[in-house]
Amino acid sequence: MNPDMLEAGPADAKVLSVFDFDGTLTHHDSFVPFLKFAFGTGAFYGRMVKLAVPGLRFLVRQISRDELKAQLIRTFMAGVEKAWVQQKAEEYCQRNWARLMRRRGCCRWSRSWARARW
Hints:
Low-confidence stretches: 1-8
Number of strands: 0
Structural class: mainly alpha
Strand content: under 5%
């Protein structure tokens, strides 16, 4: 979808821009590296072991990429406090922003954000 395009809707509707962080704004997918950063190496690999069977099921096409990603999210985020995730996300952003973000994607996001009516 063109990030400069907005779907038609009610004049007083709020606008929400959603991006897939697998290359739209970043140079590469940042979700798994974020999980490793947030949980630490030991806990990260401990939880990744739980994804061995779903990973194999994905490889033999028994489950989709979306189903595997949903399992990844459940494995890491079940029972985790929102405030903790937000704190870790801010720390991750501070350490990795310049290395991760695409300048062109950020410019498009800024234009979209400026058009949003809150």
